[in-house]
Amino acid sequence: MEKLGLISGPKALDSPVRISRRAIVAGLALSPFALIACGVSGGQGSTSGATSSPPTDSPAPDEAIRATCATAEADLIALYDATLATFPDTAGLSTIRDEHAAHLDAFGVSGNPAATPIVAKSQSQALKDLQKAEQAAAEARTTDCVAVGDAALARLIALIAASEAAHAVALGGGA
């Protein structure tokens, strides 16, 4: 079996995935930027003086975004499940998979994968595919959090975006 390091250094894939302190710090460092990008602040409202749409206008679009995010999390879970089934010696990936299950639960709606994932034949390519999927998910969640009207949902999506960015860093081996 070919041994590949998920994180810079001699760590092999047959050991659990360990997220380095640098990856955690990078993810945490991205959190405030994601919150700012989403227009979420610690205050009670916007100080820009702009008026917002009435609260009755936002639930339908927010719920559509919530459903989209839930489906995206289900897609990531399915990709991790398929990767773990194909390469069972990458058991350390189950920690990240479980974090995605927690993300899905946090949305409070069920999500079903849009398609059955196809896993690369080589372990190294499968890990690169996971890293790319995490990066794409982080970017999509950042876009989603800007579009929602509900501040609590925006915070949730921003935190999930930061988590997915940290996963991408951990899988990509740099920070």
UniProtKB/TrEMBL annotation:
The protein's name: Unannotated protein
Organismal lineage: unclassified sequences, metagenomes, ecological metagenomes
